[in-house]
Amino acid sequence: MIESAPAIWLTLRLALVTTLILFVIGTPLAWWLATTRSRARPVIEAVTALPLVLPPTVIGFYLLILFNPGTPLGGAWVSLTGDTLAFSFAGLVIASVIYSLPFMVQPLQTAFERVGRDHLEAAASLGAGPLDAFRSVVAPLSLRGFVTAGVLSFIHTVGEFGVVLMVGGNIPGRTRVVSIALYDHVETLDYDAAHALALGLIAVSLAVLTAVFLINRRYPAHAG
Amino acid sequence: MAAINLSGMRPFLPIRLGLLVLALTLLAAAPAAAETVRVAVAANFTRPAEALSEAFTAASGHEAILTTGSTGLLYAQIVHGAPFDVFLAADQVRPARLVGEGHAVAGSARTYAIGRLALWEPQAGEGDPLERLRSGRYRRLALANPELAPYGAAARQVLARLGLEDAAAGRLVFGENIAQAHAFAATGNADLGLVALAQLAGNEAGGRFTIIPAAWHDPIRQDAVLLARGADNAAARAWLDFLASPGARDILESFGYGVPE
What is the mean pLDDT of the segment spanning B157-186? Predict the structure, then answer.
């Protein structure tokens, strides 16, 4: 287990950073999806859900093409940092944000839709601006959605394999996350180490998911 | 239009059915020797295996059904009862283990192909790729994971032989297998790659490559083994014999593999 420590630490950091970024990106996106009457909505919803459908290694392959130093994004990154976006922590974060996006957006969107227009109109009639209304009415009422979305994004990033496998380059301490270390153990027939890591992964995931369901039960959607 | 055709055909249906049954009976009875062999193939050998399979059917009348996957994955599947008759691994370790564990026929493991390494520069610069590796004028060198893949272990030996282990250490990126190492270079994220010659042979990948002398690393031997469930399958034995035939050796060489002496 000691030898797995760098992989575990890296995985936790990756999952945490990814989840925080997803909160920033996912909240306005989910809010827009929950409230808009735009005709583009089904299309945007579908695009958001795409990572659920595409095989992770396919997403990873296209990210590799996107990260190529010859592309605008990849080139800008190289001139900024002197390093390629592929095989870097930043590259893993971008990949994970894309891959876990639906796990953030969908629970949030559901939660926002449940709040309903009545609450918002009430807030507006009391003189609250849209941001104020969101902060003081929507956010508290959607607490459960935020917890669910955050935990699902975190756990989904921890368990991510195919995308990281393609984008990461398996560099110890840098891009070798738990799921890849686990795969390496299986491939080298080191089943004992594989079982230990897999058990750990399952135990943590079960504990966290159980906690989420417990919280959801204690704080029902319309607690406010 | 369709309705007319359909009603027109209806009277003939029993006759057609009868003919079909007759044909099937003949097919089943006549070439009594034609059998099917299920072959588990290491993923990096997919294209040559397909070419071999065609030549095999033409030569023997048997049919080979190929399933591809990583050597480690196929090994695990075979141990757990996957219905394969022959295993074409990308190394010698897994076939030997299968024999040791009783999942494969003792004495049946033999080398069918010897992998060759090439140093690939997907976007050709000036001069020889090997010179570029020596001089350090590159950002990333992609190779297969030496712990997992024989090509990776060989690549590490090449670096050691060139005295470049330390110089390259911070710039190596590891594919889980040789296909991924190739993808890293092909997408331009690594500017050099120690990949399989077979991936570049007959491939319009572009750039420039140098074939690494075979003496610079231990031979990358890929072994085939007759699995326990294929022990009584004539097609399985025919497939293994075919792999060592001159026709098969020509195919192997055309795909950039060495053949056993």
Answer: 91
pLDDT at A223 > cutoff 80: no
The shortest CB-CB distance from A84 to any of B73, B140, B147 is to: B140
Give the right CATH number for B36-114+221-254 from 3.90.550.10, 1.10.1520.10, 3.30.43.10, 3.40.190.10: 3.40.190.10
Name every residue whose Cβ is closer than 8 Å to that of residue A161 and which is 6 or more positions away in sequence.
A56, A179, A180, A183
pLDDT in tens, B36-81: 999 999 988 988 999 999 999 999 999 999 998 888 889 989 998 8
Inform me whether the C-beta atom of residue A182 falls under 8 Å from chain B C-beta atoms.
no
Rounded Cα distance between A165 and B242, Å, is: 36
What is B117-211's CATH number? 3.40.190.10
Subunit contact A67:B189, Cβ cutoff 8 A: yes
pLDDT band at residue B206 under the 50/70/90 scheme: confident
Domains of chain A with CATH codes: 2-218 (1.10.3720.10)
CB A185 within 8 A of CB A199: no
Residue from B80, B176, B191, B192 whose CB has the most chain A CBs within 10 Å, to mutate: B176
Nearest CA in chain A to B72: A187
CATH 3.40.190.10 domain range(s) in chain B: 36-114+221-254, 117-211
Q: Is B184 on the interface with A (CB under 8 A)?
A: yes
ipTM score for this prediction = 0.71
Classify residue A3 by its DSSP letter.
G
